[in-house]
Specification:
2 domains, 7 strands
Length: 298
């Protein structure tokens, strides 16, 4: 009986091994197909991508150039895939921010007014990528987004200054660039209550003073007017506002840098702390972290 069981188990093991080989072959084939689809996508979108590069990348500051402008006192509002989709696609929903016509309009107006406000505010756009995600974004939105961007003549900032790639490429120089922005200054952090943002000492132990304004960790745009009112209370004793509120942070940075918002130095820093930790401490990618940290949710 034991021999029969052993034979059956060995037979089952051989079957599983063969199935694993087949699955590996299928995965390899699918990977090759995906790579070919990306190549075909680039070929099919060649004209669009040439135009995207001419309008964005050819007029874009490098990451270090962007940081030099922030250090000099210019504010920054950053666009990523979420901001672009919320601006262009009414049906799109971020996990932490519902779409709304008002939010889309505010983001669009920042582009319309870019040249008029560019002495105070940098609008930062992503480097032109040709991954499947970004080719989908260009394919779906460039016919609307292109004319908005072409209307401006100012240079774009680079949105990746707060992303892991900045620390990967520039290491300690990237850390030093950010630390110079708030060195010896009074800082106000505007973030969602219990959110991913963390005031890590490797970046922030050189500030003179820190205050906080908390909004909601999700759908912060619905509370934008409350945030603006809270900012007025701390404005006299604040040198730099650091904002980590997703798309609402982009809108808020634009408002605070304007005459109506007090011409403040407002920096949309997004996932800066998590990006630093991802590169230097090998933690999870910022988007893989929970929206609300269990240790800071109360």
């Amino acid at each position: 009986m034991d021999r029969e069981i052993l034979t059956a188990l060995e037979s089952q093991q051989r079957i599983l091994q063969e199935q694993n080989k087949n699955l590996s072959a299928i995965r390899a084939s699918l990977g090759e197909q995906n790579r070919m689809l990306e190549v075909l996508g680039r070929i099919g979108m060649r004209d669009v991508l040439v135009e995207v590069r001419a309008v964005i990348q050819d007029r874009q500051m490098s990451m270090l150039e962007t940081m030099q402008q922030i250090e000099s006192g210019r504010s920054i509002a950053r666009w990523g895939d979420g901001e672009l989709k919320l601006m262009m696609q009414p049906e799109f929903q971020l996990m932490f921010q519902q779409s709304s016509p008002a939010l889309a309009r505010d983001l669009q107006n920042m582009l319309f007014d870019h040249d008029m406000n560019s002495d105070r505010l940098i609008l930062a756009l992503p480097t032109v990528f040709t991954t499947r995600l970004w080719m989908g974004i260009w394919a779906e939105n460039w016919h609307v987004m292109g004319p908005l961007l072409k209307a401006s003549r100012a240079k774009w900032g680079n949105t990746h200054v707060s992303r892991p790639v900045f620390f990967e490429r520039h290491g300690k120089d990237a850390v030093a660039a950010w630390r110079r922005v708030w060195d010896g200054k009074r800082v106000c952090i505007i973030s969602g209550r219990g959110s991913r943002f963390e005031l890590i000492p490797e970046l922030f132990d050189n500030v003179a003073h820190v205050s906080h304004i908390y909004s909601e960790p999700t759908n912060a745009y619905a509370h934008l007017e409350t945030i603006k009112a809270d900012v007025k209370d701390v404005m006299p004793e604040t040198d730099v506002f650091l904002i980590a509120l997703g798309p609402t942070g982009s809108v808020l940075a634009g408002y605070l840098s304007s005459e109506a918002g007090g011409e403040c130095h407002a920096v949309d820093i997004g996932h800066l702390s998590a990006s630093y930790s991802n590169v230097f401490h090998k933690t999870a990618n910022p988007e893989q972290l929970p929206i609300v940290s269990a240790s800071r949710s109360n």
